[in-house]
Amino acid sequence: MRSTQAELVADPSNAGMVGAWDGDEGAFWAAHATRFDEGLAAHHLVFLAAAAIGVDDRVLDVGCGAGQATRDAARLATRGAAVGVDLSSDMLGVARKIAANEGLDNVEFLHADAQIHAFASGEFDVVISRMGSMFFGDPVAGFANLHRAMRPGGRLVLLTWQSLTENEWLTEFRRALAVGRELPTPPTNAPSPFTLADPDRVRAILGDAGFADVTFEELCAPMSFGSDVDGAFEFVSSVYGWMRDGLDDAGRVAADDALRRTIVEHASEHGVAFQSATWIVRAHKP
Questions:
Q1: pLDDT of residue 1
Q2: Contact present, 179 and 256 (Cβ < 8 Å)
Q3: Is residue 241 part of a domain?
Q4: What is the pTM of this model?
């Protein structure tokens, strides 16, 4: 396994994302990498199958995080290679450690901003991103840079969230923790988990970036938040505790009680799960 660690050079439009992902947020997800992978397990294999990675392919994984998709791509591209790129040095550290432990020698991880990184022109056969492509400060510029890095005929395959209203996990957490308040809605026209939720907007972005034949496959599946109520409550509270900001002590108790109730309602012998909805987006470079 090759390891590439250099000073991060990012586009100014991504400064906020660098501050988050190469800071406390990235450190949190690095510490909970297994939990994130488990949460997306019902989506991951479908996404990987959609990428249709061949043994000779060179694959780029954008926003690779702790690298599960990158490593799985490397296992499929046995005569090729997989490169993961991310803003988070902490998550890349986890990715490199796991890849080394697994003995993968055709995988590389880059600490870089994929929006501007100077990938070799035409270097990749397939570009994938599992929940990592929604955070470009300038999405057209970001996807245009990925387009340049692909060979003609190369494939782009993304896993992105559908709209907030289609994702029970977040609507339930917001409802519980709001305690009657109006919480801010994640933006759809700026870096956020729902930036690529609208198919019309995604078609426009990818079309302006040079891609063709943009298609969407709907995938609805349970999302796991832990094996038991206490573990799920602790995890969700850690991720979304900021939604309680501004509440007094009584309000915080009410929010925690409401959150625990909805977690109990979604618990079974198989663990705690809420419904989630994603898009598998496909496109190619003409």
A1: 59
A2: no
A3: no
A4: 0.94
